Amino acid sequence: MTMRVDAHQHFWRIDRGDYGWLTPTDTPRLYRDYLPDDLAPLLAEGRIDRTVLVQAAESLAETEFLLGLAEATPFVGAVVGWVDFASPSAAGEVFRLAKHPQLKGLRPMLQDLADAEWILGEAVQPAIRATAAAGLRFDALIKPAQLPAIRTLLARYPDLPVVIDHGAKPRVADGEIAEWAGHMRVIARDSHAVCKLSGLATEAPPGWSVETLRPYVDVLLEAFGPSRLMFGSDWPVLTENGDYAGWLAAATSLTADLSEAERAEVFGATAARFYGIA
Predict the structure, then answer these.
(1) Separation between Cα atoms, residue 35 and residue 176, nearest integer Å
(2) What is the DSSP track for 81-118?
(3) How far apart are CA 127 and CA 231, in angstroms?
(4) How many domains does the chain have?
(5) Rounded to whole angstroms, how far apart are CA atoms 109 and 114?
(6) Residue 124 is part of a domain; what is its CATH number?
């Protein structure tokens, strides 16, 4: 039986103080601890075997915290951490973190930056080169406005393994699709990048349905194909506009026309291959 993988989930502990974006007024549902014991029953219900634990704070200390959790949590198959790519010491930090067997990738939080081309700046290139040289993956946390820069990055570093988080967060709630779809098709055609089937529920209007998401998922399936697409929950951020079982059921329905082998790619094999999960 093929291993089933949730390619994108988070843990956090509020009292660590890492998460400036979490506040009791702006994110009341998320403003509590989310730890392995909270996720374990959801994984069991969904028959998910392994997860990819992804950073949620711009902090080396948080990455170290997540690596500690991963060591103690059998279902965590990989960790995607954070390094300050603009720091003069970034390359050294990349190589130091890469020594940890469960650290498989890095993710600068590009979606929050005002400069859509920040990732192309000269100051961050040593960190990107170090990421590639250390055998790590690059998680591209972006919004549609940053897709042109990611296209340039992919052309500049053809050997850097890149995954686009959350399908680049198309503006589902606004019904915008054409420009986003054009960029995603070109990226899929011209690069090696893979993409996460995750985060779409968060971008959808309240009360979204499978049919709300279908046009966007169809673009991703057409562009990347099952062998370059991986299911992720984005839990617990998902709970802002959905729940684990509901999103898993929606993703299952949206891929129902695939063969059994193709679904096995989306729900496990692509992530296991990309992140090197045994």
Answers:
(1) 35
(2) E---TTSTTHHHHHHHHHTSTTEEEE---GGG-S-TTG
(3) 28
(4) 1
(5) 11
(6) 3.20.20.140
- Spell out the per-residue pLDDT of the chain, length 278, in tens: 689 999 999 999 999 999 999 999 999 999 999 999 999 999 999 999 999 999 999 999 999 999 999 999 999 999 999 999 999 999 999 999 999 999 999 999 999 899 999 999 999 999 999 999 999 999 999 999 999 999 999 999 999 999 999 999 999 999 999 999 999 999 999 999 999 999 999 999 999 999 999 999 999 999 999 999 999 999 999 999 999 999 999 999 999 999 999 999 999 999 999 999 98
Measured CA angle at 51 (ends 169, 205), to 5 deg: 30
User: φ, ψ for residue 76 (rounded to 5)?
Assistant: -80, 115
Q: Element (H or E) spanning 189, and its range?
A: helix 178-190
Nearest partner of 247 among 9, 56, 15, 3, judged by Cα = 9
Q: Are 87 and 93 in contact (CB under 8 A)?
A: yes
- The residues that bridge with 106 in the sheet, in sequence order, are 81, 138
User: Which amino acid is present at 114?
Assistant: A
Residues near 39 by beta carbon (within 8 Å), at least 6 away in sequence: 9, 11, 51, 75, 235
pTM attached to this predicted model: 0.97
Any idea what the Cα angle at residue 59 is, between residues 58 and 60, rounded to 5°? 135
Q: Containing domain of residue 269, as a range?
A: 5-275
Q: Taking the CB of residue 68, how many other CB atoms lie within 10 A of it?
A: 11
Q: How far apart are CA 134 and CA 129, in angstroms?
A: 9
